[in-house]
Amino acid sequence: MGLKKSPHDLASYQEKVFEIDSHMGCVISGMTADARYLTKFMRNECMNYTYAHGSMHPCERLVAKIGKKAQVKTAHPSKRPFGVGMLIGAVDEAGSHIFESCPSGNFYEYHANAIGDRNQSAKTYLEKNFENFAPLGRDEMIRHGIEALKCSAQDTELTEHNVSLGVVSLDEPFNMLSAEALRVLLGGNAGGDVEMVQMQ
């Protein structure tokens, strides 16, 4: 789940959630151009892996490739680090995963996490509730994601125009919820400035 931002009143909202493969998606915080470069790289890696092995790319292995690629950028004076943090959510043979990838090249796996502006309130909400997530179904998980996003700030109204929500599970390939579905789910909630992913 991500909160899209508009740089100006006349500008359209910038997308924050991207599909990587049918079993994987990511949400970004930072420079959109760097995020597009990395998501293109990840999509190519997934296609190559599927072509060579006939199965889905393992999530942790792909995140490690991103970490290595990011770390190399920090080791050369002629290059600049990637200016984007990512939360990558996926389902593979090892189960469901949420990884945070940092510009430094470090990556971490979580049960739930939030990144972006004013993310601490969302993290606090997730820390209080993550132990109850295991038995929950799809709709309940989505509601928790919306509540976490709502906690992150009080001065931004959540609408179907500025919120993106992607869902992936063992039974459901990665897909973005439609504007109509978001309108029903949000139903007057107000929230703030944070990009986060919540997976089953």
Please tell me about this protein's structure:
- The longest helix is centred in the N-terminal third of the chain and has 22 residues.
- The C terminus is likely disordered.
- By secondary structure, the chain is an alpha+beta fold.
- It has two domains: 95 residues, 4-Layer Sandwich (Glutamine Phosphoribosylpyrophosphate, subunit 1, domain 1), CATH 3.60.20; 85 residues, no CATH class.
Strand segment tally? 13
If classified by CATH, what would the architecture of the largest domain be? 4-Layer Sandwich
Provide the residue-averaged pLDDT: 86
Strand order of the largest sheet: 2-3-4-5-6
Beta-strand content bin: 25-35%
Radius of gyration, Cα only, in angstroms? 16 Å
Helix content: 25-40%
Class from secondary-structure proportions: alpha+beta
Shape: globular
Q: CATH-wise, what's the superfamily of the largest domain?
A: Aminohydrolase, N-terminal nucleophile (Ntn) domain
The number of distinct structural domains comes to 2
Mind telling me the CATH class of the largest domain? Alpha Beta
SSE pattern: EEEHHEEEEHHEEEEHEE
Helical element count? 5
Using the coordinates shown, work out and report the CATH topology of the largest domain: Glutamine Phosphoribosylpyrophosphate, subunit 1, domain 1
Determine the N-to-C terminus distance: 13 Å
Low-confidence stretches: 188-200
Main sheet record? 5 strands, antiparallel
